Amino acid sequence: MIRVFIKERRSWILLFVVLQLLALLIAYLDPAVPLSSIGYYIFLSSVIFFIFFVIRYHREIHFFKELEEREQDLDVTSLPEANRPFEAIVEKNITEPIETLQQTSSSLHAQMEQEKDDLLAWIHEVKTPLTAMHLIIDRIEDRQLQTQLTHEWLRVHLLLDQQLHQKRMPFIENDLYVEKVEVEPLLFSEINMLRSWCMQKGIGFDVDVAAVTVLSDAKWLGFIIRQLLTNAVKYSKDGSEITITSSEQNGQTTLSISDHGRGIDSRDLPRIFDKGFTSTSQHENKAATGMGLYLARKAASPLRISIDVQSKLGHGSTFTLTFPKANEFIEIQGV
Description:
Blueprint: H1 2-8, H2 10-29, H3 35-69, H4 86-138, H5 143-168, H6 172-175, E1 179-182, H7 183-193, H8 195-201, E2 204-208, E3 213-216, H9 218-235, E4 241-249, E5 252-258, H10 292-300, E6 306-312, E7 316-322, H11 326-333
Parallel strand pairs: 2-4
Antiparallel strand pairs: 1-3, 4-5, 5-7, 6-7
Helix pairs in contact: 2-3, 4-5, 7-9, 9-10
């Protein structure tokens, strides 16, 4: 045990010896310094250092004994290899748990990736019977029943679509295909998907987006518009109208979707894009998931689309998409 302690304190001993040799060298080179006085100084300092060394040894010996007795764990004093330098003991004691944690992390990451792939595969599989179900619903003669079933089918379809895009979101930049997209056909395609729901609520659309073309990804832009339209229809009053307009501002194209629904409380506006946030004024609405606007802004970020909202409680809301300038977008993408 004494050998381990001396090894760990060899820097102390070396420093002390160097200082004594330095004192002897000064006495040898300078005749004015008596050699006997230096010898007396060295003797006293050596005695003091020896006493200090013995005291420190007895105080710290318990620590080195614990190194031998304790089992390896995350504690840096837990390795039993007392015959090794303390730095090596600490290094090994830290490295091995870190490697174990890294292996566990890699295993969990691979497991999560597999679960994500399984979920994506399941969603794609479910789309087949959903398509068949929609064809069956179209053949139902009872119009009221058909409308009700179509509405429920649409809800399932939108939830699956939202889940699919949510799982793809971390890899959205690998999935982007930026091109010139005509907004009007994309809008009518999304509106047509919500047709049965709109008919059930008696909601109409006033669309004025004459020949607007933007630089974006058609699939993800459609997803963003789908979330905004779904929210507009969901919270619009029966028999009301949703207005969709476009404009040019400072060389940038904007697309606005306005509804005349219940609106958003001013205290909720800063939080509506937060994950899972629904409402503080309409908290009893159990159908809301708080994911639509969160995913819309998440998808808009890599496309450099900003989403702004203006709303007044009880008077509806207006969501505005502002698209980047073409040159700005190309510079950001490094084209």
